[in-house]
Amino acid sequence: MTINELDKYLKTYTVDELFYKEYYLAKQDPAKLKEFIDKADMKLIKEKSLIVPDIDDVDIMEPYLLIEEYVFEHKKDYHILASKHFRYTPEFTHKHSFFEMIYVYSGKCEQNIMGDNILLKEGDICIVPPDVEHSISVFDDSVVINVIIRSTTFNDTFLEVLSEENILSSFFTKILYTKNYNNYIIFRTNNSDSIRSFMSHIIMESIENEQYSNKILDNFLMILFAHLLRDKKHTVELPKELQKSNKQLTSILTYIQGNYKSVTLEDLSKEFHFSVPYLSKLIKANTGHTFKEMIQTIKLNKAIELLASSDLKIRDISDLIGYEDDNHFIRTFKKVYGVSPNQYRKNIMK
């Protein structure tokens, strides 16, 4: 698929979009709405799970919850999926168990995120974390892309973003490790050509679904993040709560993420000039987990990634993630996941 073919593909109306557009126009006149409902193809609506609040047989509960396992059901080895947001879809409040990145490919769209009304223009990128209620409105020919990013593998796949302190690492680290975090982050890219190019390749890889597309998508997203951070012409918008957040806590969490293999509370106390008891309480109060639990979670997440993507021996994986004793690693893994690392790998291969 070429860039021109992608452009034509995205701007062409799908069956779902044609249905939603007809529904949207019908709602402007009560008589036309009644006529639309009377002749509505219920088989099509149910087959495609179309959202039609005016038809009694279709019940949408808000906030509608989208589950990561369901979205990735047919692409279990993918961390990222990209698709077009169907134009004229009725606005409805929803939340999800994954990260969502909204990119305005052409035109504009409106978002309501936890009560904040936001206008996104062509080239803008908005990232919404899990469990945040929001809605999106696209009621014209604009093209908006939804990029879904697994939260369960985020920590490992995009480790480089989290390993140094920047606006994105602060955003993601707070979401992954604290109880208080911001509801969104927006990059106003001024319709950057480089960002558009990377986004186009992300969309194409997701559509074409060829061999190694999953790995290519991971790397394209990393490059996209790097460009967003490097280009000073891009402006960043954050909710007020992140702007007022505890910068020291972000620095501490980022340091833990970058040094998880060997870092101790004593190391942290020397690095940030706090006492060990104070640091221990600070981490527990803001994350809901002890320092030891955080380190164990990071290590085991990395172990899962290596078990799934490599043929490394268990002792080598144990060493790579910072366990001095591979028996200790095996016991810890089995206690948390109910199976040994070897059995976990066999289950994945099946």
Automatic annotation (TrEMBL):
Keywords, sorted A to Z: DNA-binding, Transcription, Transcription regulation
SUPFAM superfamilies tied to this protein: Homeodomain-like (SSF46689), RmlC-like cupins (SSF51182)
Repeat found in the keyword field: no
Domain HTH araC/xylS-type: 250-347
This protein's record includes keyword Transcription regulation: yes
MF terms (GO), sorted A to Z: DNA-binding transcription factor activity; sequence-specific DNA binding
Domain of life: Bacteria
Annotated SMART domains: HTH_ARAC
Protein name: HTH araC/xylS-type domain-containing protein
Gene source species: Clostridium folliculivorans
